[in-house]
Fold this protein.
Amino acid sequence: MGQSLSSQLVNLLAAFLLLIAFAMLSQRRILTLIRLFAWQGAALTASTLIVAYTTGQVHLYFSAALTLLLKVLLIPWVLHRLIDRLQIRWDVETLINIPATMLIGIGLVIFAFALAAPISELANTLTRATLGIAMASVLLSFLMMIVRRKAVPQVIGFLAMENGLFFAATSATYGMPLVVELGVALDVLVGTFIFGIFFFHIREQFDSLDIRHMEKLKQD
Amino acid sequence: MEIALVLGAPLLGGLLLALVGHKRWAPELNAAMSLVTLGAAAMLTGRVIADGPMTAMEEQFFVDPFNVFLVALTAFVGFTTALFSRPYMRIEEHHGRLNAARLRLYHSMYQLFSFTMMLCLLSNNVGILWVALEGATLSTVLLVSLYRTPASLEAAWKYFILCSVGIAQALFGVILLYFAAEKVLGAGGTALLWTHLYQVRGQLEPTVLSLAFVFLLVGFGTKVGLVPLHNWLPDAHAEGPTPVSAVLSGLLLNVALYAVVRSKVLVDGALGHNFSGGLMMGFGLLSVVVAAFLLSRQKDIKRMFAYSSIEHMGIMTFAFGMGGPVAAFAGLLHMTVHSLTKSAIFFTVGHATQKTGTQNMADIRGLIEQSPAIGWGLILGSLAILGMPPFGVFTSEFMVLTTAMHEQPWATPVLLVALGVAFAAIFGKVQPMVFGETNLRRLPHPPALVPVFVHLAIVLMLGLYIPPYLVDWYRQAAALIG
């Protein structure tokens, strides 16, 4: 695989990543949201593999395997189990209507590209054009966490944000040192389990996973 | 060797207590593990003072006067809080607020929390520091919701989401830092090590580093509780068990600030001008002012002291942002006295709320009549935290203010007004709680008051006389970050 071909492939996958981030933003059903999250993980795995193959960085194979295991298989499975046990398949409510969210999302993408432009200039990696996309998907996930009212979509937004960060790491720097990546993966895994425990506690107390029930504590 | 013990004791304690944390002697085991950690930290401190900075295990860990000072402080407050939590948690169990499973969770997570903080402080790797700081959130989030009340679940959820999102921003900062460092140090293990980064900081790309610092400050600043990222802090402090409030305020905020200060030193070296200092002063001052004005609106006693923590973290952030040896010295001293005083206050507040059965300040009356020790502890602790001489907080705040008059004259009146407002708010609320008619019940276990007065005595001593070796130690640490 030549440099230019693999660079084009990574760019294509980056575009997928951004598209999925927008799809998640507009998606109302929780099951589809989980499926989209798994697809995002798959795109991330593929792009990590391509970078690993082209550059011969062995540790990137490990992180690709880790991504596949954790974000395509394990976490979506855990989320599926959770929503089965909690029986929450209802539509997702949003704070702002979806077209408006999309418009804000487009603004965020432009902002991310403007922010990333001077840094991309400095990068000499084959995937440098994708740093802006990575930053944009982080911001879009952030937006998703802000506009969603239910606990599960908020968590999926958080996990998608982590995907975006991971993509930033591979696209700008060929991945962080392996020990750091393992640590981050451990944190994400433990975090997902704690979220799961939380869902049950919240349900027990409020009979619902709607965050609006949890606005008793004052801001002041 | 000592490093292995400092990290190993709480990790082992966490695993052991996960199995036996509900037994009758579990609180004693918890305290014993914290004592081992303290002993190891003391040995480590002695060695670093004698031999100077060192690294261990292929440079994955490093110790210099700055972080060893925080290791010692963290181990000390960790131990005294374990002593306090011994009767406190027994009383909670007696009142029926906790069962065996939750006690096991509490004891195990208490030790794991100590472990993550020590790892955060001792790690030479910026990435591992990030992982450990996120680990500190994960280990405490289930402690905040330990009572499973609606309010505590809400507080824990807010804590979890806000801190995770915040720390995700910091991860982006770490990635950008790695991106800049990799060009100079090459890919792989050494490009994220503080010791290597400091050596080449003049060659790192300034535009990337300034952007990285913004992300790092926002990310770690969320955990420091800087305004406007402070929303999780009062809720988490008010709803969790009191020992957790004490270690959150006294230790976790310090450790997060440590991460910010380390990043600042690095970025200053690369930029050559005071971009990062300006940002920190701005955030710090905003936190002091906003927290001071919100103090008087509080009804819950633990919330009020949580806002006081935001105020004090703001003062420290301002001091470190100002830079220079005197301000850095003052910042370090303030870190010490704040964490000692604030944890002492939370110890007394914990027992006071157990006696009255409420955290609502209007319902707490006449502490001094029924239990003079708790009453005196609360009033003395409040006077100390408000910066009354002769306590140590006065010394450090005085140093911050005099340095500010030289370096940033515009900030001095703002700080003074905020400190005055905070004084009026806290003193006005604490005074009727301590004096007046009593409405208290007796506790089934005698309260732990030795830690309170030990902390206050140290703070008093630091206000009157700082031993020369301690001055020397602070100076060495201040020289590293000033």
Chain A has seven helices and no strands. Residues 3-219 of chain A form one domain. The mean pLDDT of chain A is 85. Chain A touches chain B through 48 residues (CB under 8 Å).
